[in-house]
Amino acid sequence: MKERIDNATELGQVPEEARKEHKGFQERDLVSSKRDHPTILQLRVSSQISNGLVILTVDCDMYSNNSESLRDVMCFLMDEEKGQKIAFVQFPQNFDNITKNDVYSNSLKVEFPGLDANGGPAYIGTGCFHRRDTLCGKKYKNDYQIDWRTENDRRVEESTTVLEETCKTLASCSYEENTEWGKEVSSPWVLPFLYVIAAKYGYSLGEFLWSGGTFQEWWNDQRMWLYKRTTSYVFGFTETILKLLGFVKLGFVVTSKVADEDVSLRYKKEVMEFGAPSPMFSILATLSLVNLLSFFRALKMLIMDSQHRVLDLLALQMLLCGFVVVINLPVYGGLFFRKNKGRMPSTVTCQAVIIAIIAHIVALH
């Protein structure tokens, strides 16, 4: 897939072989602009064809590994006492190729904190079975009872051609224009709410140990929690704001899924990788050095303080700063001690050192 995208980018157009495979590309030859194009439809628009009462959503690189999961879901949705209160049922994710202590916190071992008014989990985007009606805004009452047999007794009599044309309309980008649903979803006021939810995510040691994790795995998760909120979340927030203001367009970058032997070996040893120049590493390195200099400065003040005033005034600050220093030990190793290709690039190291020293000098004066 990455190679096909790169080829199309270099050519400046979709290759002829791909155009022949999908008739939607031939229809695009008749349009006058990028926004004026027919829907390329090679998928099943389920509301028009099957109208299934339950919808499974998964990421493009995931699948359900349990054929009985749907039966488990229906036990919840068809429960006579509480089924009408359940909008969706989602399952935890299982990941392959995870190290023992999950150095990058990829496994999402504890991922379902209660966020809504009833203590229920947020929808995480994959591995979830939804009631179709709830996605359409339908509300259920306590005395509501759905007739599953009647709802499922639906036949489609239209021809394939008619169905395809109908589904193109349903799947088009303009279908929701000038509707209450379209206005509500595209409203920028929902963004702060989403970021507040994302910022509340956190894992505790007890939850990790209870779910079969290790102390080191929990510690790695705390590190990645900090790193994500000082880098990728900031980048995402900034780019979203710039998009809303019309300065940039959001893009999708296909990352490489192939690692060389040295990278794989370091990953198996749970050694973090810093080998590529990145704004993310620049921020991490700078913040870690600022905290390190601040911690050393506080220690110096504590040693030279004969009246113990520093400890009374800065005890909590030193504790927090010390915690940040300890959690950033892999970064310090990548900056100054490692000699392999996974170390911090020299440009990132020099940049971080200069900025941290300047910030420290400014703070002292």
From TrEMBL:
Compartment(s) where it occurs, according to its Swiss-Prot or TrEMBL record: Endomembrane system
GO terms under cellular component: endomembrane system; membrane
Mode of membrane association: Multi-pass membrane protein
UniProt-recorded Gene Ontology molecular function terms: cellulose synthase (UDP-forming) activity
InterPro entries: Cellulose_synth, Nucleotide-diphossugar_trans
Keyword Transmembrane helix: yes
Keywords: Cell wall biogenesis/degradation, Glycosyltransferase, Membrane, Transferase, Transmembrane, Transmembrane helix
Pfam families: Cellulose_synt
Membrane-crossing segments per the record: 233-254, 274-299, 311-332, 344-364
Disordered as annotated region, ranges: 1-31
Descriptive protein name: Uncharacterized protein
Organism: Rhododendron griersonianum
Biological classification of the source: Eukaryota, Viridiplantae, Streptophyta, Embryophyta, Tracheophyta
